[in-house]
UniProtKB/TrEMBL annotation, chains A, B:
<dbReference type="InterPro" id="IPR013785">
    <property type="entry name" value="Aldolase_TIM"/>
</dbReference>
<dbReference type="InterPro" id="IPR002220">
    <property type="entry name" value="DapA-like"/>
</dbReference>
<dbReference type="Pfam" id="PF00701">
    <property type="entry name" value="DHDPS"/>
</dbReference>
<dbReference type="GO" id="GO:0008840">
    <property type="term" value="F:4-hydroxy-tetrahydrodipicolinate synthase activity"/>
</dbReference>
<keyword id="KW-0456">Lyase</keyword>
<protein>
    <submittedName>
        <fullName>Dihydrodipicolinate synthase family protein</fullName>
    </submittedName>
</protein>
<feature type="binding site">
    <location>
        <position position="54"/>
    </location>
    <ligand>
        <name>pyruvate</name>
    </ligand>
</feature>
<feature type="active site" description="Proton donor/acceptor">
    <location>
        <position position="141"/>
    </location>
</feature>
<feature type="active site" description="Schiff-base intermediate with substrate">
    <location>
        <position position="165"/>
    </location>
</feature>
<comment type="similarity">
    <text>Belongs to the DapA family.</text>
</comment>
């Protein structure tokens, strides 16, 4: 495994796949998973992340996590890099990671621990134990502002750690950490909070960003990525202004509707995202209307059939 | 099942059991679990909570969660009420809850969902789905300040919901919620943030409190409970002042050492708590010394053997 160059794959959009749940039973609609993967790949998304937060990872059983990873790998059929989300206890994350390897995932993304008590050194040990016991390139999803970035500095020398998905919106802190870690560790920095924050993170050293928006409007995310890579500031800000209202809508109710908004957008353009699971509730009519307005502004409305 | 009176069991101390992990392998030391349960019961603790936060619930695999519940029930042997912690996705929590019932646990404590996205209505659905699908009295562990107490108001009419372990240190908010829920719903309110906050919560309507301190100094916790029940203010504040430095120590490093401090205290008085698991790291020499000082002040030092 050439870990040194592997991280370059994340100088791209990491598309977090949604998990479609059937209305009523709330079971996973596996056909919907397949359609979602096909849509993303056909529209030019190169990195798929099953079992990220937009996938409602924490609403899945461990069996479902495994099957989602396995099935996304199967559907992607080597046409995209599959970055499989794993987490929970160290032993559970290792089990999920080894399963991901067995079924052919390319790499793992380790969620931040959900434990209410953690120390910097304990978090180093947490990630290190998982990385050392899963023989795949690893990406850390770093999102707890109470934990020091020293954790990343200490882990950066691990060969398997190829990228960090940084999800704390503190730009000076992020920039300082990027600068403090030697380039020869080959860490690819990824903005972990999507299009809204991507321009700022790129300016501070990120080379890729995560996206939930890709599930309905990948063209726009790819346009942003291209503009960021070319340093085309005019284009960056015009695309950014186009997607901002959607990303802001996802932040309503303390981000409680984050995934519900994405799924509603998908539904309105004719895709089959299903519903969300608890602890997320269905959208209000008002929020659905707000999505409708944006879909219309983006000209993504489904053409009306003649009566 | 007489749900109406069941909640009265929580007008008491809910003793959160620690999970002893072996030095090195970090496997669960089942003999240590047995000793811990024996210690708690012998010292007068009536309610045991395996798989709470002090049990390092989130550092356990699901198989370990199940075995910990089963084994604590076996060790308690009906000499204490066993309140089994369950959580994660709805389906996982139901599976754990039904397992708890099968092995003889008396009731379940449902952890707050760990999902990064949640809405008030979604949290109602989350708890409701679990409560409706596990045929045991249920206690909600309510600790996310971003979620409205309206959730508790809506769930309070469920017959199986017998108590709420309230873990948000906003007293006016707590008092208002206690007052707003009709008495005939028979919800027992429990201070979910232990001895330090118990006097304030009792004043506002709590009738019991959770405790990690019981794992080493149950006499002190029981003294506080008795004083609170008798409204013996002098005693309440004298005990409170005795335990406060210990509870404050547990809050150091954003509570990262919460359980490590308890385990260190247990170790210093000759119990066998083992070590903590990731993402918690071992205590510094300085923090161990701080525990030593308190143990000495409490006169819990192990008598020195003659040389």
């Amino acid at each position: 495994m050439d870990y040194q160059s592997f991280g370059k794959k994340f100088e791209d959009i990491s598309g977090i796949t949604i998990t479609p749940f059937k209305e009523g039973s709330k079971e996973i609609d596996w056909n919907g998973v397949k359609e979602n993967v096909k849509f993303l790949i056909n529209r030019g998304v190169n990195v798929l992340v099953p079992c990220g937060n937009t996938s409602e990872f924490y609403a899945l059983t461990l069996e479902e996590v495994k099957e989602e990873i396995r099935y996304v790998v199967e559907c992607a059929n080597k046409r995209a890099t599959v970055l499989a989300g794993v987490g929970y206890s160290v032993a559970t994350a290792i089990e999920l990671g080894n399963y991901a390897k067995d079924v052919g995932a390319d790499c793992i993304m380790i969620h931040m621990p959900v434990h209410p008590f953690m120390t910097d050194d304990g978090v180093v040990d947490y990630f290190k134990s998982i990385i050392e016991n899963v023989d795949l390139p690893a990406v850390i999803y770093f999102k707890n502002p109470a934990i020091s970035d020293r954790v990343l500095e200490e882990l950066s020398s691990l060969e398997r750690l190829v990228a960090v998905k940084y999800a704390i919106n503190d730009l000076p802190r992020f920039a300082r950490t990027v600068h403090s870690i030697p380039a020869h560790h080959n860490i690819t920095w990824v903005c972990g909070i999507a299009e809204k924050w991507a321009p700022f993170f790129f300016h501070a050293g990120a080379r890729g960003f995560t996206s939930g928006l890709v599930n309905l409007y990948p063209e726009k995310s790819l346009e942003l990525l291209a503009a960021l890579k070319k340093n085309d500031e005019t284009k960056v800000w015009s695309v950014w202004n186009e997607v901002l209202p959607f990303e802001n809508l996802r932040e309503k109710y303390n981000s409680g509707v984050n995934v519900a908004i994405v799924k509603e957008g998908m539904r309105q353009i004719g895709l089959n995202p299903g519903v969300t699971r608890e602890p997320v509730s269905p959208l209000s009519a008002e929020d659905k209307a707000a999505v409708r307005t944006l879909i219309h502004q983006w000209n993504l409305d489904i053409p009306k059939q003649p009566q």
